[in-house]
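Minutes, methods subgroup
Present: GH (chair), OT, SY

1. OT presented the first of two proteins processed in the latest run. Sequence and structure tokens recorded below as shown on screen.
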Amino acid sequence: MNELITQINDAVWGYILIGALVACGLWFTWKTRGVQFRMIGEMFRLLTDSATSSIEELADPNFKRKHISSFQAFAVSVATRVGTGNLAGVASAIAIGGPGAVFWMWVIALIGSATAFVESTLAQLFKLHYKDSFIGGPAYYIQRGLHQRWMAVLFAILITLQFGLSNNSIQANTICGAMQEAFGWSPLWVGALLAAMALFIVFGGIQRIANVSAVLVPVMAIGYVILAVIIIAMNITEIPHVMKVIVLDAFGIEKVAGGAIGATIMNGVKRGLFSNEAGEGSAPNVAATASVTHPVKQGLIQALGVFTDTLLVCSCTAFIILISGLYEVPELNGIMLTQSALQSEVGAAGPIFIAIAIFLFAFSSIIGNYYYGEANIRFITPNPTIMTVYRILSGGVMVVFGAMASFELVWNIVDFFMAFLTACNLIAIVILGKYAFRLLDDYREQKRHGIKEPTFHRSQLPEIEHELECWE
């Protein structure tokens, strides 16, 4: 079964999806005039934006929504991005595809950030009121923008299978592997503890998830980056050689490890997408929950999330591994390779630090992944019993399954669902992208006129005004 899934993954990724991701990224970069490069200063400024009041609150002081700010939405999305993919995924890409896979991870991040901008802007545009917050994502913009209910339901099912279930098994698998390597702890007991902690948080809703992520994400990301910078500084003379190895290997000029150039590109793109999720349709689900004055704001925030994930955190892991030289050891893969590389640089404390870091990285991903499934199950049905069953499966059953399953099986399952999920979302955003382009033009025009905080009203898009519930 595992071999069959591998063959399907290689066929879909090797012949279809890589080309589609690159083509879409280049198209969106051109149509937005390089938004991910030209507006990076605005991205950082928007991180300090507070949540805005809704029209109901302005009309009725007793009505209160539980707003999610731009930074909180950024933190939840980065919590799912910055996780296993940054430590185990990068190591796996290098071990299988060679050092050149890092180059292709960078490429997919640079052009994919434009894709992330478009999908998250659309999620904000088509979001809906839900109880005391907002809800949205690709399933919502597919139904309200394309009027294709079947496609929206298909996406909702795929993302629930991918993030809410199979993706959480990878997070648990990596945490348990790291804990076993560092402390010798049983995967079963670690998995059971993870499940108990995850269930407590996921039953608290998006506000609890956002609050936890807003604390965990900065702590774990900053701590890991600081350690990586120290290691790189200690080995600064090795950096030119590392960069040379990455570039030469990326084009098959000097194959150091892994297979042919095709394997290098495929593993770099796959692990890059798993890590930064640009185009996959996951981050828009949390981007839609933010309370902002203009949809473009959250699109810019999510584009920054791609840079944070791949160009910063993934690069840290890649440099540590390549400096160590251990990527050529066949027995090392995944989180064990990252732990061994760090141990070679800082001693016995390395595996312990990675075990703690991966716990924070992956656990925050578990709770963020859960929310993606929740938002999409609510799209299909409001049945509370189904939601309770999903919470138990996502936070409990799949976490324990991942703790006990093999490294190869959990990654193959995720790659399988990720391929079809991404294809479904890319079709939708290519068709609906015209609205994101118009919104970006409007945002830039307001900024040119000296408006510090641009605003949007649904009457600005009269042809779809009746589909825009939240922009009164």
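2. SY then presented the second protein from the same run.
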Amino acid sequence: MNKEPKYEEAYAELQAIVHRMENDELDIDQMTEQLKRAQQLIKLCRDKLTKTDEEIKKILDSTEQD
């Protein structure tokens, strides 16, 4: 079973991938795989941020109604 990383872990991995790309530490085969992984991580982070934003709005709305 592949556990989904927490936001902080995904963001840190994404930063590491960017660092390796900026410093030309990847060959062409690694770059392809790392770009695919970066795309997955970006989606995961975006989804988590969207979900958190929605939850915060719900909490704030329920607080205002009290």
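Chair's summary of item 2: Residues 10 and 44 are 8 Å apart (CA to CA).
Next meeting: continue with the remaining queue.
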